[in-house]
Amino acid sequence: MKSENNRPKDNSPMKMLPCNERPYEKFLESGPEALTDAELLAVILRSGTSGCTAVELSREVLKLSKNQEGLSGIHHLSLQELMQLNGIGQVKAIQIKAIGELSKRLARLSAREQLTFQKPSTIADYYMEFLRHEEQEHLICMMLDTKNHLLGESELFKGTVNASLISPREVFLEAFRHHAVNIILVHNHPSGDPNPSEEDMFVTKRIEKAGILLDIHLLDHIVIGDHRYVSFRERGMLSYQ
Q1: In this structure, what DSSP letter does residue 9 have?
Q2: What phi, psi does 28 have (nearest 5°)?
Q3: pTM for this model (two decimals)
Q4: What is the 3-state secondary structure (H, E, C) of 19-45?
């Protein structure tokens, strides 16, 4: 039987690091706030590859996105793109994508507590993490009762929001299903610039006019960019204020 002194040493890359540079030890000593993005990701990944620590592998993951480096870039990476990295198999790729989805859901839960339909900024916050990373446009309709309580929300379209594809009929059929008296439209611009296009303004006017005839008011149309938004209501671009 081998004695303690005769046991082989653990010479894995992570064990060779000073204690204060190991994510687990650093977490226990100073808390999660002290860890870098790469170190936090390394805690999830747990292991690297031969000659490459989990922290170094995490840094490679964070640099992988062509659109945006860092944690935000995870949202833009597919499983296949992640698995191109040596040391990232299907399981680790799924773990990384799960982190991105959890972050979106946590952000939305936090924003929901502050959600007020009279304040466009709170609606933008509620949808920001859900929409700002998307590479296609999504059009969402929020349906409200007479006291502006949320009755439901529905994604009406995914692709390119334009006048030929978005019909007021689709919007108000959904509103009727929920017995809504007020609606708010929300959609994103993948470019990150929330300024409304001519198509956005044309579609909004068509829906607003149809709503006046049906007695279902369009309270706002909010365009989500990258940490920015534009509210038609705040800009005075709607008749019903």
Answers
A1: P
A2: -65, -35
A3: 0.65
A4: HHHCHHHHHHHHCHHHCCHHHHHHHHH
The amino acid sitting at 102 is L
Q: How distant is the alpha carbon of residue 191 from its chain centre? A: 14
* DSSP state letters, 206-228: HHHHHHHHHT-EEEEEEEE-SS-
Cα 8 versus chain centre, distance: 46
Calpha distance 239→208 (Å, rounded): 8
Segment (H or E) for 56: helix 54-62
How far lies 158's CA from each of 167, 177, 183, 187, 204, in Å? 13, 20, 19, 9, 16
Number of residues that this document lists for the chain: 241
- pLDDT of amino acid 208: 95
What angle in degrees, to the nearest 10, is found between the helix axes of 54-62 and 37-45? 120
Q: What is the mean pLDDT of residues 131-155?
A: 90
Please give the Cα distance from 230 to 193 (Å, whole number).
Answer: 9
10 Å CB burial of residue 10 (0-12, 13-18, 19+) is exposed
